[in-house]
Amino acid sequence: MKDQLNDIKLYDKFAILNRAGKHEILKDGDSWDELKNLYNEIMEMHRPDQTVEVSDTSVMWKDDRWRCHIFNSDRGWGCAMRRNPSVIPHLQDDLGFELDKVLSLTNGSGLIIIAGPTGAGKTTTMASLINYLSERGELGDTVTIEEPIEYSHSDPLICQREVGINVGSFHGGVHEAMRQSPRNIIIGEIRHPNTAEAAIQAGLTGHRVFATLHAENIHEVVTRMFGLLDKQHDELLPQAIQGFICQHLVHGISGKTHCIYETLHASPQVRSILSQGPAALPRLNHEMYQQKRKSLSEYAKSLVISGQLQVEEIVRWTTE
Predict the structure, then answer these.
(1) Distance between CA 94 and CA 82 in Å, rounded?
(2) Are 82 and 123 within 8 A, CB to CB?
(3) What is the CATH T-level fold of the domain 5-84, as seen in this structure?
(4) 116 φ, ψ (degrees, to nearest 5)
(5) I want to staple 215 with a disulfide (CB 3.0 to 4.6 A). Which of 10, 115, 164, 231 is the partner?
(6) Which among 229, 298, 263, 266 has a CA at the least distance from the CA of 116?
(7) Does the pLDDT value for residue 25 go beyond 50?
(8) pLDDT at 2 > cutoff 70
(9) SS3 56
């Protein structure tokens, strides 16, 4: 049942299995009995006290770590599970990133934002990047703040802390991490203004900060950050930022899932554009071209030309 099974929804009376977009409903049999036991264990340990509350956690099942979102609906308590492989994917061989385009963003200190929509693999990319730097001996002392912990790192220099278990909040975890003077601070997700401000402060105080953010493209990353930050931190963002990665997952002709992405290094020219506010953001396209980096649209079109994607899969980018 593990092959190609990456998403499961568990309820008290049934389970919905998602294999590569095809859904299967289980209500009886040995497989359902196993999932029912798993459901009961998750609910016993992690179900919120109130029906208006939700809970995010992770569990180990069938040798893999699964991210769990527990919620209440007209079907009672449910749990949406997403599988994360026990082995962290390789940044280039498995995820398809050009190493120079990504690693060039990690030199020095500052904030590197990995963005994309829900389910685009942002956490996987961040874990893969951290693991790659670790294996090359280029990472150093690292503190992560995650909700929940999805990938376990074996490097003893990486200290992983989970919100709600080891630390009270993302922004609190960032401030606590800064007092440990690590080389790197990993922020599972920037959702709220106080976390965005903490990320800026950490990036300005000599730390290399990696964080994920929900956004469709690099323009939207900057717009969202400006929306989260107050005027003072808006002015500090250009100084703190080190680079951007924005990615999407699309389904290929052969059934393979492709990660299309765009990257941008915070060069002096990029910082100058950011300092001029949202109205100047269209000029980032020129800087991406100057840095010889593909936009999401260009990456998607290249996969269509090479016969790996149908035009219908990437119409959102090719209609620019």
Answers:
(1) 19
(2) no
(3) Beta-Lactamase (3.30.450)
(4) 160, 170
(5) 115
(6) 263
(7) yes
(8) no
(9) strand
Strand duo 184-187 + 241-251: pairing:
unpaired
What does the pLDDT look like over 152-166, one tens digit per residue? 899 999 999 999 889
Amino acid 57: pLDDT: 86
Per-residue pLDDT band for 1 (boundaries 50, 70, 90) equals: very low
Closest CA to 195 of 214, 181, 182, 180: 214
Host H or E run for residue 114: strand 110-116
In whole angstroms, give the CA distance from residue 224 to residue 205: 22
Sheet with 241-251: strands ordered across: 158-162, 142-146, 184-187, 208-214, 110-116, 241-251, 257-265
Which residue has tokens 């179900």? 47
Domain boundaries, the chain: 5-84, 99-318
pTM over 0.90: no
CA angle 258, 260, 262 (to 5 degrees): 165
Strand order in the sheet with 15-19: 22-26, 15-19, 5-10, 76-84, 64-73, 55-61
DSSP conformation class of 188: S
Q: What's the half-sphere exposure (Cβ side, CA atoms, 13 Å) at 32?
A: 12
* Cα three-residue angle 9-14-20, rounded to 5 degrees: 40
**E strand segments, 215-298:** 241-251, 257-265
> pLDDT digit string (tens) for 125-134?
999 999 999 9
Q: How far apart are CA 124 and CA 145, in angstroms?
A: 15
pLDDT band at 202 (very low <50, low <70, confident <90, very high): very high
Residue-level pLDDT at 244: 98
Count of C-beta atoms within a 10 Å radius of residue 5: 16
Domains 5-84 and 99-318 share a fold: no
- Nearest by Cα to 15 from 29, 25, 6: 25
CA nearest neighbour of 139 among 127, 130, 148, 126: 130
